[in-house]
TrEMBL record:
Coiled coil: none annotated. This is MBL fold metallo-hydrolase. Its cofactor is Zn(2+). The keyword Metal-binding applies. SMART domains: Lactamase_B.
Length: 213
């Protein structure tokens, strides 16, 4: 699997394009600049299969409809945030003055629980990692040693929990029980900032030190 990180929008959220040897592609968190993401898809001659959302905050969903409509793609989102795409108050765009209100059509596929997914030639696990938001999930591609953690875990930091539905203790618990149990060499591809590894965050992340289950 190959992947490309594309920081987009005013908060520079990371959108990702993943593709395999058959040029099939998945899009994760197209937060803005859908046309730019589509150009990357065109330049690499890819065939998109689906859009996966780690959560439904505005900076991760703003480009969804551009890409969904262009490629006729299903959008996957956890059921705990199924109403957020259409509601600027819940997806946060109504709170931040630097962005216009964002409303996106409902998700096509609802993630109801942790599960193993196969889409085209891709296979991955979905882990529920709430705390930053109630429907936050992480996508673990075991065969490729990579986890897309959304805004749960960052290089040297963790997601904010002061937005509606956020819960600090729940987030710390999610990180320890769902992410830090992965192999230490697992690449962590976050919703903002650079890549890191599970081992690196276990060692140096100041927000995770001293926590016990």
């Amino acid at each position: 699997m190959e992947w490309k990180q594309i920081p987009v929008g005013p908060i520079q959220a990371n959108a990702y394009i993943l593709w395999n040897n058959q040029k099939e592609a998945l899009i994760i968190d197209p937060g803005a600049e859908g046309t730019r993401i589509a150009e990357e898809i065109k330049q690499n001659d890819l065939k998109p299969l689906a859009i996966l959302l780690t959560h439904a905050h505005f900076d991760h969903i703003g480009g969804v409809d551009v890409l969904r409509d262009r490629y006729n793609l299903p959008v996957y989102l956890h059921q705990n945030e199924r109403d957020w795409l259409e509601d600027p108050a819940q997806n946060g765009s109504a709170i931040f003055p630097m962005v216009e209100d964002i409303a996106v059509k409902p998700a096509d596929k609802t993630i109801e629980k942790e599960s193993f997914y196969e889409i085209g030639g891709f296979s991955f696990d979905v882990y529920e990692t709430p705390g930053h938001s109630p429907g936050s999930v992480s996508f673990h591609f075991k065969d490729d040693n990579a986890v897309f953690s959304g805004d749960a875990l960052f290089a040297g930091s963790i997601g904010r929990t002061d937005l509606p539905g956020g819960n600090h203790d729940q987030l710390i618990n999610s990180i320890h029980k769902k992410l830090l149990v992965l192999p230490e060499e697992t690449l962590v591809l976050s919703g903002h900032g650079p890549e890191t590894t599970i081992g690196q965050e276990m060692e140096v992340n100041p927000f995770l030190n001293g926590f016990s289950l």
